[in-house]
Amino acid sequence: MTAEREAEARRVSWEQQLAVFEEEQHVPPSRRMVMRMRHNKLLLLGSAIGILVLAAGILGPWLSGADYTAQSFQDTHLPPLSEGHLLGTDGLGRDLAIRTFVGIRVSLIVAAGVTALALVAGLVLGMMAGYFHGWSDKLIGGIVDFVWGFPLILVAVLFAGGLGEGLFPVILAVGLVNTAAIARVVRGEVLSLSEREFIEAAHAGGYSNFRIMWRHIFPNILAPALVLASYYVAVAIIAEAALSFIGLGAQPPLPSLGQMVADGRNFLRQNHWESTIPGISLVLLVLSVSLIGDGLRDVFDPRLRHEAKGVDDK
Amino acid sequence: MKRIIARSLYTLVVLFVSSVAVFYAIRLSGGDAIAARLPASATAEQRSAFRDLIGLNDPIYEQYLNYMGGVLSGDLGRSLTNNADIFDMLLEHGLNSFILGATAFALVFVIGVPLGMLASVRRNTWVDNSVMTFAVGGMAVPNFWLALLAVWLFASTLGWLPSAGCCSPRQLVLPAIVLAMEGIALTVRMTRSAMLENMEQDFVRTLRAGGLSETRIVGKHVFRNALVPIISLAGLRIGQIIGYALVVEVIFGWPGLGQVLVNAVLRRDYPVAQFFSLVLVAVVVLSNWLADVGYTVANPRLRKA
Predict the structure, then answer these.
(1) Which of A97, A126, B5, B224 is most buried, taking the most CB atoms under 10 A from its CB?
(2) CB-CB: which of A162, A287, A310 is closest to B190?
């Protein structure tokens, strides 16, 4: 009985998809993407939360004043909705709203740095490994496998051991591991692309390797690489927060969400908001980034929709 | 077989390269920090003599060989902060880490596989939906935040379990569950999708036609086939657990290798940081090798190649 119901549900959803597809055929490709995005509820939800959190990170410090170091020893541990402190204050009397906004900003800056690094390096390395077979593939593949096999947090702790604590080693370490993750996938995509006829035709036309890579392969792997990178944005945000939590990431007085959670944990019983406000902000941030990533994958790479849901080994 | 040998050789190379990299990176910053511990009144010659004494002026490959010689003979030096013998630290904290890590590793499969099976059998019902919501949540919530919430609920509010410390079974519960959580979430998702995939296979139809009960088909035949990718990727969970243990051990005050390494980095205790980085890197490389072998053995197609 359940099998029949499932088959029926599958037929209905298939017919719906077909209707959407036919409707799409009358629309230019650029509008098609927009239409698919509007059909995608996850993407909409993620974007809605994302825009709120983004606004808090970008506009917050500007609206509420950006002095996240100002202390006031008369106003320690104020609860949320106190006078002059919308979200209350921490143990040093610093305004939690301002610090949370700046913390979100720090998370976003780290995520942007990591993603830019990983995307550029991952694309270059992955394309080189996949396009030129032979020793460059073996060398890059070996290095990438090696780096990819390491747990992110351990790599970051090693970098902190070599370079000292701070956001810079965190960005480098997380960027390095994410580079490997992106390069692996790009390499595979390029390998299968270079077997295709249009690449063969480009070779026959006598184009240079650089031109083939830049004009023919790159546009075809950009979308999957971007989708993958959006997934690793969430990874970067969590890693930064975890490292700041144990004291190896953002250094005081610069606030970071992970560090604020750590600062507040001693007062959890009486004044839980000192940890819960940055903690909930962090979870919302990660959730919105992951929803946007999932949604983008559905829009740009529909064939991954079913495969990628279950199995992901990292 | 050929593949296993090739991977083993690759692992040896990786072990060597990563030990050189870790040694070099920490030696660079650590050497000067040790030299800086001399009193400010020391003259330039005395500083240079001291650097000679601890071998900082030797060529770096010689320093590496000396250090590795020390590691192999069990002479690892002492901690700069509490003068503890580093080899003793390894034994004590290594055991603690092993207890925590092995418990978390077991939990990943003991909880993850049955939940994934349950979700796949009750597909598209509220059971499936709540299990999958739990799995998505387990991936989205950072583990240090989960740890804090768990301490808040189970230790501070309900008072069922201690919030920190080592090493009684009651103290093990919270850190082990937090450490296992992301692995559990992943295993649930993998089990569910592998079960569903196998339920669509032709052999299931054949078994149904043969009149086997549904319980037996799912519980035995489908389950066995679904288990293959999960077991073969189990080795990857080890590396993941080692990474997260760095954070979880610090939060719960569990005196394992991760906590020792993080504290050594924070306190600039370079001999300790140096050695425990090498230990953890070696464990990760070896567990990746184990994962690779497991993967090869579980996939007959790769075994022949």
Answers:
(1) A126
(2) A310
- Position B37 scores a pLDDT of 65
**Cβ–Cβ contacts within 10 Å for residue B181, how many?**
26
In terms of domains, do B284 and B137 share one? yes
Q: Which two tokens stand for residue B143?
A: 């583990």
* pLDDT tens figures, A236-282: 998 999 999 888 888 888 888 888 888 888 777 777 788 888 888 88
Continuous H helices in chain B: 2-35, 44-53, 60-72, 86-121, 126-140, 143-150, 169-199, 202-209, 214-216, 223-232, 234-252, 257-266, 270-298, 300-304
Q: How far apart are the first and last CA of chain A?
A: 37
Task: For residue A227, give the CATH number of its domain.
Answer: 1.10.3720.10
Q: Does residue A16 lie within any of the structural domains?
A: no
> Are both B67 and B145 inside the same structural domain?
no
178-207 of B, contacting A, C-beta below 8 A: 186, 189-190, 192-194
Question: What residues contact B108, with CB distance under 8 A and at least 6 apart?
Answer: B180, B183, B184, B187, B237, B241
Domain total of chain B: 2
Residue B247 has pLDDT above 60, yes or no: yes
ipTM of predicted complex: 0.80
- Could you list the residue range(s) of the whole structural domain that residue B116 is in? 86-302
Closest residue on chain A to B240 (Cα): A151
Last residue of a domain, one of B47, B72, B97: B72
Same structural domain, B140 and B47: no
End residue of a domain, out of B72, B96, B121: B72
In a domain, A302, yes or no: no
